[in-house]
What we know:
By secondary structure, the chain is of the alpha+beta class. The protein is 45% helix and 19% strand.
Amino acid sequence: MIAxxxxxxxxxxxxxxxxxxxxxxxxxxxxxxxxSALGERGEACTLYTDLQVSENDMRLLGFxxxxxxxxxxxxxxVQGVGSKVALAILSALSAGELQAACANGDAAMVARAxxxxxxxxxxxxxxxxxxxxxxxxxxxxxxxxxxxxxxxSADAVxxxxxxxxxxxxxxxxxxxxQGELGDGASESDLIRVxxxxxxx
Length: 200
């Protein structure tokens, strides 16, 4: 399976881009956020990809970040969410906003995406609520980045989970603590502040 494309941006459309990789042009369907991150025509770019094959179609989806691809795969596991709807959601919401919406059961936020009604939005947040905490988030909660595994914030999330908090609650609390304390915060400070946020 094609997992990543690295080449030159050849052309773009409303929801697609053509990436020239060593003279071969790959048509890749993308969210609006990914398209805006690709840069100008002729510039070098990298896309993380997912190949979807059905009886009558083969479609390559592209994402600016691996975390966005992970969310796409999770969204398309929900009944009623195909690749177009998943891309519409990822066009309307950043990974961080989507994570927060699922963690908080905020169906109204998900329903902001084109083609997503209240019923489908409710199903999405209900099915993904418990998975949201372990998912990557480029935007974090309220624009706060959730940092990679092995970092102080990841260790703090793990510590809260060990104390019995659900992954989504732990991730949100640590993200809020990180925003309050800054990127250089120690693990113990993050845990201390996150416990207050989680309890509150």
